[in-house]
Design a protein that fits this description.
The chain has 421 residues and is of the alpha+beta class. The protein has 3 domains: 135 residues, no CATH class; 125 residues, Glutaredoxin, CATH 3.40.30.10; 110 residues, Pathogenesis-related Protein p14a, CATH 3.40.33. Helices cover 29% and strands 24% of the residues. The protein is built from 11 helices and 18 strands. The longest helix has 17 residues.
Length: 421
């Protein structure tokens, strides 16, 4: 459920406190945003104040709360993306105890209902407004431990309009808001692939909750951009070589200022063999820890293995990622897989990771000529074939680090390092 609190600018702090309290019993099932009176949104008929959208007509342009349902999926929930309840403020800057209780009871009823018994909309029945997508204002951080954000825009996150249609605009917005930039290059020839991916994975309620943390751009796979005064195909950019010229997704990190991968492509997910990503795979993509392209790709490959290895349930540790990177680079340089100099590396890791008593390492190599994503998946498959390696990969670790590098022979060399008390 999405709780939208329309509040005056002077009442934002009170609204945050109120929303945090209302959301607390339903934390895993609710998101919350605050919208101020002057926030605008784009519609088919032009730009309007968000609060003037017909979806919020029941509030009559007064401060209050609207509840939008994104439970389940559009197929399972006929009210998906609709305002299902509204509550006008009945006290200055907020709600009386009786009104709060009514809101809590409404949420309990809505969230507790199964997909076959989703209640009919209460008071408000319109679809949530279409616009440029939900985004948290970077100049208004979440206070304290609250999960309530001050929204600059709001949109029905199941609609296509949540995606920008300009790469340059997406880059500028991601830089400004210090967010990750997700670019979806949709297939133009394989219409069934596009429809399956957009109609399932991109509409999954869990995926939608993660997408709001990204600046999102959707473009055709043939899109061109201006580089040094020339018009070139975006997919031909050297930084996207691991897309293998195919449509799919890539992510640029504009959130990690000061890191070596800031402003770099940190994920590439082409539609390999014409197969769309599932909702679970999209969740794995959207929740990867910060890191380089090769590090995040290895973590993804471990995450999506059917047996769900538990090593990635620990803490992704920058130092261990660095050690994994160095050893993968060494293997790639000498073009030979192995635990070279593990004894000295072990001692160094134990000294650096204070409080940890044990460390372990796994290594693997790909087939020659494979792309990054296929190579990472292949290395995890190889680990599964070795009981000793798989014991390390599949066991829970206190902290972990993964990386993979390609040698001049076209072979990728992967490393995983784990520590435990």
């Amino acid at each position: 459920m999405l709780l939208v609190f329309f509040a005056e600018r002077s009442s934002s702090e009170t609204a945050v406190k109120t929303l945090s309290e209302l959301r607390a019993p339903f934390r895993t099932a609710c998101e919350a945003v605050i919208v101020q009176p002057d926030e605008k949104i784009r519609t088919a008929s032009g730009e309007i104040l968000l609060r003037n959208d017909p979806a919020f007509a029941e509030l009559g342009n007064h401060p209050g709360l609207a509840i939008i349902s994104f439970l389940k999926s559009p197929k399972e929930n006929e009210d998906f993306g609709k305002v299902v309840a509204t509550f006008a403020c009945d006290e200055q800057d907020g709600f009386s105890p009786a009104r709060r209780q009514a809101i809590v009871e409404a949420l309990a009823s809505l969230i507790g209902s199964g997909p076959a018994s989703t209640p009919k909309p209460m008071q408000g029945t319109a679809d949530a407004p279409a616009g440029s997508g939900p985004q948290s204002a970077s100049q208004s951080p979440r206070p304290g431990n609250s999960d309530v954000a001050l929204a600059t825009h709001l949109a029905p996150i199941q609609e296509a309009d949540m995606w920008l249609s300009s790469y340059a605009q997406g880059v500028a917005q991601a830089r400004r808001e210090k967010k990750m930039l997700l670019v979806y290059l949709y297939p133009e020839k394989n219409v069934s692939l596009r429809e399956k991916f957009e109609g399932t994975a991109l509409r999954d309620s869990r995926v939608l909750q993660e997408l709001v943390h990204y600046v999102r751009v959707r473009l055709p796979e043939s899109v061109t951009v201006d580089r040094d005064g020339k018009t070139v195909r975006l997919l031909d950019a050297p930084s996207l070589s691991e897309m293998e010229g195919q449509p799919g997704l890539f992510i640029v990190d504009y959130a990690s200022e000061g890191e070596k991968y800031y402003g770099e492509v940190v994920s590439v997910f082409p539609f390999l063999d014409g197969r769309p990503y599932t909702a679970d795979e999209m969740l794995a993509i959207l929740t990867l820890p910060p890191g380089t392209l090769t590090q995040r790709t290895m973590v993804y490959a471990v995450r999506v293995h059917p047996e769900r290895p538990r090593s990635i349930l620990g803490r992704p540790d920058p130092y261990l990622f660095s050690e994994a990177e160095q050893h993968s680079q060494y293997q790639a340089r000498i073009r030979l897989q192995g635990h070279h100099f593990w004894e000295s590396r072990f001692a160094r890791i134990i000294r650096a990771m204070r409080g940890q008593n044990t460390a372990s390492e796994v290594c693997a190599e790909s087939w020659p000529g494979q792309g990054l994503l296929r190579a990472a998946l292949e290395c995890v498959r190889c680990w599964r074939l070795s009981p000793g390696h798989w014991r390390a990969v599949s066991s829970r670790a206190d902290a972990y680090g993964y990386d993979i590098k390609r040698g001049s022979n076209g072979v990728w060399y992967a490393t995983g390092i784990f520590v435990n008390r």
